[in-house]
């Protein structure tokens, strides 16, 4: 039997792939328009909108806030997630499967429900607008990705290497650090990348927890479109995000062959 | 330290974060939903189920629940319809093409949700790319309304959740043993027959898993329905958002959040039962 995809199948697949890139292409191209309103195809070519966004202190502070939040949430998720995944994978505690399911639950649980639940919880405790409380709420959303990637990596790493290291006199943590951790690296990088993107992307939880004067990049774009509609400045900031995402994806792919972990 | 102590020590920090900032806040919302909202003062002292009965009997709210579930069904079906051919192509093509296609599938997945919805506004608006194109080539005389209605929501959400479906289906199709298909081919079965009697049924668990994931994510989506549907065309998640942020009616919003959660959990539980039944049938 011939295994090659037929022309019809190839054409359909290509059309679906184009559909997937469509909004990206439109946003990126329309950010170069010379008109003051958003139009496609763009009229003329200018980098003015990039300049105006990148010199606006409000946008810069939102970018900084988002990056700091995503970085802290990701680092915390990687430490806590790796430890928990190790305990689950090595069956160090009873009910490992139930615990794993619970740790993955935020992946399918309605995010908006987590958002309003934390809004009431934080409002009660006076934590609304607290940066570290926001980081902790993002750990809830991002840690499942680290746990999942680490569990899948650990499944392929037997205990015999750590035991061999133990025989050679390495203590538990030394053996983990020198033997298991390097083997976990691809999974950790992939999980960390997912975690970072998830935090950077989040609106449905973040929007309920921000204090006055605080804004993350996606919440700021969301609110701007929701209240005032679209303009070329928003297209420019979106294009910057598109380029950063593309670059990060390319680096992660070259570094660890990341598409294996999706 | 060894055994259970070590395990508890390693797992408890993350477990505590999830118990404290996920499970507890969700459960602690329950009392809130059982009080009446009094504008200006807050909530009543008396306990009541009226938030739930109102949401389930009032036509306005029932329409929103129905619309949300219909939207979830349409998006799930379209994701399957568009996703299967792509996943099938990826499973059967050369490794190099598969890697390239995988990157094109996950790139939009990682791109900011707000940015992707923004792209669809540009495409679907009355003076947007799609309408201009259709009018230029003379297919239509006046713009087709594709924003602030079901059409826009379904297109935007299909785009957003399609990558999840493709990745689930790809794994399922790759797991179909090729020798079964080859055996059928040896017995002179046509390609279509092989597909419908072998490949499709063997990928059913993957189709189920992908569909459940897409459905559950679609009915709880907030950003895309809000941006493509506007403030007036509401679904469950945007209604919850408005109850909390605009109307400040927290009891109502909380009750609606629990109804959305109940639907989600019920679907996941039901799908789990079906999946177990299928795997039980095979063993």
Note the beta-strand portion of chain A: under 5%
How much is the radius of gyration of chain A in Å?
Answer: 22 Å
CATH class of chain A: Mainly Alpha
Low-confidence stretches of chain A are: none
Mean pLDDT of chain A: 88
Name given to the CATH architecture of chain A:
Orthogonal Bundle
Low-confidence stretches of chain B: none
The proportion of residues in beta strands of chain B is under 5%
- Fourth CATH level, the homologous superfamily of chain B: MetI-like
The tally of strands of chain A reads 0
Rough shape of chain A? globular
Q: Order of SSEs of chain B, N→C?
A: HHEEHHHHHHHHHHHH
CATH C-level name of chain B: Mainly Alpha
Helix content of chain B: over 70%
Overall residue-averaged pLDDT value of chain B: 90
Q: What would you say the CATH architecture of chain B is?
A: Orthogonal Bundle
C-alpha Rg of chain B (nearest Å): 23 Å
Main sheet summary of chain A? none
| CATH fold topology of chain B | MetI-like fold
Short descriptors:
heterodimer, A: 262 residues, mainly alpha, MetI-like fold, 11 helices, 73% helix, 0% strand, globular, B: 283 residues, two-stranded antiparallel sheet, 14 helices, 78% helix
Please tell me about this protein's structure.
Chain B: It is found in: Cell membrane. Chain B: InterPro entries: MetI-like (IPR000515), MetI-like_sf (IPR035906). Chain B: Residues 65-271 form the ABC transmembrane type-1 domain. The complex is a heterodimer of chains A (262) and B (283). Chain A is mainly alpha-helical and 262 residues long. Chain A has a single domain (62-261), classed as MetI-like (MetI-like fold, Orthogonal Bundle), CATH 1.10.3720.10. In chain A, 73% of the residues lie in helices and 0% in strands. Chain A contains eleven helices and no strands. Chain B is mainly α and 283 residues long. Chain B has one domain (48-278): MetI-like fold, CATH 1.10.3720. Chain B is 78% helix and 4% strand. A two-stranded antiparallel ribbon of chain B has the order 1-2. The two termini of chain B are 41 Å apart. The mean pLDDT of chain B is 90. The interface between A and B is large, with 84 and 89 residues.
